[in-house]
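A quick aside before the break. I want you to see a complete sequence-to-structure record at least once, exactly as it would be stored in a machine-readable document. Don't worry about memorizing anything.
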Amino acid sequence: MLKGKMESLIKLIWKGMKFFFKYIFLILKWIVWEFIPLHLIFSKFFPNSFPDKKPATIAVWLCAIYIAGFAFASERYTTRLERAEYAYSNYTLQLSSGVPFDSDRLKKVGEIKLPVKPKFTWPWKATDLKNSLLFSSNNYQTFAANEGFETIEKFVRRDIRFWKHKLNNANLFGIDLSGEDLYGVNLSGANLSGANLSGASLVKSDLSGANLVGTNLSETDLSGANLAGTDLTRTQLTKANLSKASLSNADLFGIDLSWGKLPGADLAGANLSGINLTGANLSGADLSGTDLSTADLPKANLSSANLSLANLFGADLTKANLFGADLFEANLSSSDLTRANLSSSNFTSAKLSNASLNRANLLGTVFYNTDFSGVKNITTGQLIKAKTLFLVKKLNETIEDEIRTGGYNELIDANPEDKERYEEEHETIEDDIDSDEGKKDEITSELIE
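That is the input. The structure line, written in tokens, reads:
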């Protein structure tokens, strides 16, 4: 009995499988013969084989429509791409002929909208074709993206790197070039207001006359850069490297350059009034004729710096290092030189009226024709370490008496020959100060030696 049931079940399964494969075969036959259609192709070669039945052509029509759609999308994409490429080529041609670089105009070229590039894929994967045909406001790609750039900024950056030697008078308003390597870039007269150049390398770049209002130059490497005559009053320069940079006649009023790197920088004639140079390295810098009034210079390194004719009125030089600095005719009135290192420095004809020299190091310092009127917190012990006090003005009488009583007359009273020599050298310095800066440096260095 059980055996009979099993045989019946096997027969039933077999019939079901035959029925299933029969209809699968019929469906595949219809697809291959009627839909693709092999029937139509066969009838073209053997027209009398099927006289009563007209072959189906639906697949042919669908393929034709799809191919036509792809051709239409390709043509429109190519046309718009050619327009964008023409706009870009025209722009680069103008740049090569001397027209100033304009990042806003380049951005507009990069933002030109293109249809999505069509691909001849299968119908159920024809998203690109569908998008290209629709070309809606939310369904496009930019020229920059078509060129392989993720953002417009990266597209613009590529061209800036390429044209970096021809960016003078360029319009780069608000551009982001943070971290870029722009060694030797020419940005003279360029508009960089609101731009972000933080962390960028601008070594030996030319930024003379550039508009840097609101520009971020924090942690930027500007060593050897030319910033002569530039307005930096509203520029961020925190931790910027300005070693050997040219900042002559630049305006740095009130900016923060604390702990900045400016060794060997040229700041002659610059406006540094109210600036914060706390802990800054200005060793060997040229600060001749610079306005440093009310500047903050505590712990600043000014060793061997040229501060001749500089205005340091009311400046804070607490614990500053001025070893070997040249302060010829500098104005240090009301300045604070508490614990400053003034050893081997030159104060010839300098003004120290009402300055504070509390515990300042005066070892080997030259005070010749120096104005000491109202100097505060200075002791005899400090002054006897100086190299000379010839012809100083308004030195505290008590201190002067103590110097003489202590047997240090040679500091104050020069012998006739030395006195005549110093007077002649002093006159020579005053005569040559405007016409021959090098001569002044040579003579004052002789005074120190």
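Two observations worth writing down. Confidence is low (pLDDT under 50) at residues 439-449. DSSP finds twelve helices and two strands in the chain. We'll return to this after the break.
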